[in-house]
Amino acid sequence: MSSAIEICPSILSADFARLADEAAAVGAAGADFLHIDVMDGHFVPNLTLGPPIVRSLAKATDLALDCHLMVTDPDSLLDDFAEAGAQKISVHLEACAHLHRTVQRIGALGMEKGVALNPHTAFSLLEPILPELDFVLVMSVNPGFGGQSFIPAVLDKVRAIDAWRQAHNPDLKIQVDGGIKPSTIAAARQAGVDWFVAGSAVFGTDDYASAITGLRMAAG
Ligand code: DX5
Ligand code: ZN
Predict the structure, then answer these.
(1) What is the tens place of the pLDDT at every residue in 52-84?
(2) What distance in Å separates the CA atoms of residue 22 and residue 177, rounded to the nearest whole number?
(3) Residue 32 a catalytic site member
(4) Substitution site in 16, 145, 181 for ligand 1 pocket (most atoms within 8 Å of beta carbon)
(5) From 37, 40, 66, 162, active-site residue
(6) Tell me: the pLDDT tens digits for 178-214?
(7) 74 ligand 1 Cβ < 6 A
(8) Taking a C-beta distance cutoff of 8 angstroms, is the pair 135, 173 a contact?
(9) 197, containing H or E segment
(10) DSSP state of 148
(11) 91: closest CA among 58, 125, 109, 66?
């Protein structure tokens, strides 16, 4: 397991009419960076937001913007997200026919390179290009919606990635996304997660600072 944990509130659960205020509020509450769920209504059954809103958020907050692309054609959007101010990008392995090329493009645009794995997707499919990545996003719900229940079976995959990085690349970060709350975060931390996305567990509360502190404490 690597060192400090980072809490990444997901704006999917924020008030979309007040995104600048919500970003400022989680920044003041101790968030490490902001997770932005981009959904196209094809790869997942939901529609959210795109580069224009990321561009506005980049002006409204000092938090790094971590864009999770749940879209069928991420390649067509990478330049726009880089220009909009995204610092981290994750694309889904399941969406990319030429994943190595896509990852190279993310790096060439100056962004941190991440690949997301749906709950059913084996880590072994990613292993050949894992040395190229800055982070792996392990989905702990089926992507598309906030507020779903954590799927504990994905922790075996986290443990496999953790074992791989201890042998090959200690700088690789493991991010988990979906159903993270005080009752689930400790098991994920024990398995090797560094970055914790939390949507409803932060934005669904009245006190973002308490929610973020509570997650850190529960992680152990
Ligand atoms: C789901 C998204 C998540 C979502 C998590 O498709 O990728 O980032 O916002 O929400 P919670 O933390 O409520 O499960
Ligand atoms: Zn996400």
Answers:
(1) 999 999 999 999 999 999 999 999 999 999 999
(2) 19
(3) no
(4) 145
(5) 37
(6) 999 999 999 999 999 999 999 999 999 999 999 999 9
(7) no
(8) yes
(9) strand 195-198
(10) P
(11) 66
